[in-house]
Design brief:
Layout: H1 3-27, E1 40-42, E2 49-51, H2 56-63, E3 110-119, E4 137-140, E5 159-160, E6 163-168, E7 173-175, E8 201-213, E9 218-222, E10 226-231, E11 236-247, E12 253-264, E13 272-285, E14 295-298, H3 324-333, E15 355-358, H4 450-469
Antiparallel strand pairs: 1-2, 3-8, 3-15, 4-10, 5-6, 6-7, 6-8, 8-9, 9-11, 10-11, 11-12, 12-13, 14-15
Length: about 500
């Protein structure tokens, strides 16, 4: 066997040994431990390591040590400590039972005497009015603007008795100030009734009395007090007095109240006719949960509610209404279309806002923050999607001219309000060729898979094999004398 053959055999044996060692390492074959070597154990308390093996002499000494017990392990421990029954049973109970219950039971009706009602009615009631320079807002108590005039500062009140008006300042509800309805919670001026920016006020009525029975799911709470709802800064207004909450066992509730005011006409604001007070339903509550002992928040019914005797539109987004008796009263007062969908661009702002009832003013129920701003200009539901792009013969994209549905004009404001609302034109949609995806056939990058990884691995192994074969085998052998490399017979000397 030539030296080259022996070298090849040695190389194969070396590779085999290396492979076996690698396999042993992967499979976790434990190595041999020298005889007598100490095994290291980690203690649980301190995490330190101590050798467990000890010398033979020490082990023997430990095993032959005398036991620490001083008594005979084979005999009984001691005589019984008792010889019979201890005493006769006690004749009387140790204490008398309490004559009165320690606290009022919580599974029956619970009286409340300082309940708090919070409600902002609607975003439209916190909006700029369609008449430039006028607004929709609240006042505590009964206020009476002059005929055809805007409410003056000396006539408006932030609080009256148990009624107050509060504004969300971005972190909490605080008693508002005059002209607080001109700005948003961030202080931005409100100038356009269709912009979807609101002053975020609530009417707050305290001192409610009644009972709440969480076991049966029923409640009745009444409040005393009056607040005024003003539209167009007082050209149209009405009063709400003594609201009352009733919750039935099926979880539905109603908020009623007495409404009065003056019938007025925006065409002739100097005309005013008093309308006697009448009890109406302010809000229908489809779902009231009394489980929370501090109170509840409920959203009044609006969307999908239909009323009669009005010009209500039911084929528009956010179609709905306040309760029938409420709207009937508003029609008589001259502000009806502000409380149901009429086809105006501000219809989304008429939706009833959630209301909150806290059973105790000292432990208020969670108060919702103002709702997200809805779209300023609603659109009638219709298919406005682009038509499917036509495929060209080259397969590189669709038609450059997408087909759009014809936009519908926005309905004008209701009640002949002097406002110039222009329909907002739809923004152009991107042409279809801007949305064409790149495919692998047209030069794009296709995702890689397992086949690509195997291809690269095979190529790398071939390159490594070529590199090893390119090394002359004779350079791997050493001369026996001096260790200098030798060349085969007839070959050129190695340099």
């Amino acid at each position: 066997m030539t030296r080259a053959s022996r070298a090849a055999v040695l190389a194969v044996l070396g590779v085999t040994v290396v492979c076996l060692l690698a396999v042993a390492a992967v499979l976790g074959v434990p190595g041999a431990r020298p005889a007598g070597a100490a095994e290291v154990v980690t203690t649980g308390a301190t995490g330190s390591t101590v050798p467990t093996a000890t010398s033979t002499a020490t082990s023997t000494a430990t095993s032959t040590a005398t036991p620490t017990a001083t008594t005979d392990p084979t005999g009984p421990t001691s005589a019984p400590t008792t010889t019979g029954p201890t005493t006769d049973p006690t004749g009387e109970p140790t204490t008398e039972p309490t004559s009165e219950p320690t606290s009022e039971p919580t599974d029956g009706p619970v009286a409340v005497d300082d309940a708090v009602l919070r409600w902002g009615l609607s975003n439209e009631s916190n909006n700029a009015a369609h008449e430039p320079g006028s607004f929709n807002f609240f006042s505590a108590g009964k206020v009476l603007p002059g005929l055809g005039a805007l409410l003056r500062q000396d006539q408006w009140r932030a609080s009256a008795g148990d009624v107050s008006v509060e504004k969300w300042d971005g972190s909490a509800w605080r008693t508002t100030v005059w002209n607080g309805w001109r700005t948003t919670s961030e202080g931005t001026p409100i100038t356009n009734p269709g912009a979807g920016t609101f002053s975020n006020h609530q009417v707050v009525v305290r001192g409610g009395t009644g009972t709440v029975d969480r076991a049966t799911g029923t409640a009745r709470i009444t409040w005393e007090g009056t607040f005024t709802v003003l539209y167009y800064s007082g050209r149209s207004f009405f009063y709400v007095t003594d609201p009352r909450l009733d919750v039935a066992a099926d979880g539905t509730g109603t908020l009623t109240g007495s409404i009065s005011g003056y019938a007025s006409s925006r065409d002739d604001p100097t005309q005013r006719t008093e309308v006697p007070a009448r009890e109406v339903v302010l809000a229908d509550l489809p779902s009231v949960d009394l489980d929370d002992p501090s109170g509840f928040t409920a959203t009044p019914a609006y969307r999908g509610v239909r009323v009669t005797g009005t010009s209500q539109r039911t084929d528009v987004p956010d179609a709905g209404s306040f309760p029938q008796s409420y709207v009937t009263m508003m029609e008589e007062l001259g502000t009806g279309p502000f409380w149901y969908s009429s086809g105006a661009s501000t219809d989304p702002f008429k939706v009833a806002l959630p209301l909150t009832v806290a059973y105790d003013a000292s432990v208020p129920a969670p108060v919702p923050t103002p709702a997200p701003v809805p779209s300023a200009v609603p659109t009638v539901p219709e298919n406005t999607a682009l038509a499917p792009p036509a495929r060209s013969s080259s397969g590189t994209g669709g038609s450059s001219t997408p087909v759009r549905a014809t936009p519908r004009a926005t309905a004008p404001a209701a009640l002949g309000v002097p406002v110039a609302e222009a329909a907002v034109a739809a923004q152009p949609l991107p042409a279809s060729q801007d949305l064409v995806a790149v495919s692998a056939e047209s030069g794009g990058d296709a995702p890689s898979g397992p086949d690509d990884a195997l291809w690269w691995l095979g190529g790398g192994l071939l390159l490594a094999a070529a590199a090893l074969l390119s090394i002359p085998q004779d350079r791997l052998l050493l001369r026996r004398s001096g260790g200098a490399p030798t060349a085969p017979a007839g070959a050129d000397p190695l340099v």
